[in-house]
Amino acid sequence: MLPVLFKIGSFEVRSYGVMMLIAFLVGLWVVRRRSKLYGFDYSQIGDVTFWALIAGVLGARIVFIAQEWSYYSAHPKELYTLQFAGLTSFGGLIFGFLAVLIWAWRKKANLIRLMDLLAPGFLIGHVIGRVGCLLNGCCFGDACPPNLPWGIHVEGSTVLHHPAQIYDSLMNLAAFGLLLFAERKNLRSGQLVALFFMLHGAARFVYEFWRAGTDAQVAAGEASSTYWGNLGITQAQAMAAAIVLAGAVMWAVCARRGARTAITADDSATLQETQPA
Hints:
The chain has helices at about 15-35, 40-65, 70, 90-105, 110-135, 165-185, 190-210, 215-220, 235-255, 270-275; strands at about 5-10, 10-15, 150-155, 160, 210-215, 225. The chain is mainly α. The protein has one domain (about 5-265). The strands form three sheets. It has a two-stranded antiparallel ribbon. A hairpin with a 6-residue loop joins strand 3 and strand 4. Helix 1 (about 15-35) packs antiparallel against helix 2 (about 40-65), helix 6 (about 165-185) packs antiparallel against helix 7 and helix 7 (about 190-210) packs antiparallel against helix 9 (about 235-255).
């Protein structure tokens, strides 16, 4: 773990914040590289991704505070931070989507085509963001065998833990590759983002199995996510299952209606020509 990269005076430059910045820039590059094939120019992409980032960070913080309100109500001074501490990816996804929705409505842009364009960029950003979680020491997995070569130390724990953050990164990296492959097939508009919902939701559902534990285990540093009451699943798993279901429904609906998505196998040359200079 390396939560603090360096200090400027008393201000700490944290690794998680730096990785979030890198994640945004790489995701933006991926989106811009494909933007013209979906009918958007670079300035539009810069505009919509900026507002999605701002809304996503605020949403990730707001939802995290809501989930941990019992703690923050007792520690109100910790509500405000500039160090990207205490975020949840689902909050970022939901608020980021709302920002994209509002932007598309105001600009009279095709929302479904825009979501198809943005989906792979979000995935690669998430892949890099989870590396930030690893450096920050949060979102870790449960205890692993002591002879596991890639087991990690977690602050406050005396045993090695699964680097579940990296497991999640690898699952989403595979999903990113599948999206880029599927993008060149004969998909209908909206099916790419539907596939994103299914793959990302499934990855999050699996990831939570390494993180889940009781309140006592979380307090002892043995787990980083708590079960939802007596259901045997976490709140994140319930949300992930809902996202997978929504993606499956969207896939089926889009298969029956809508135009073909922008990219086909014949667009390879065009894709190369539309790279940002």
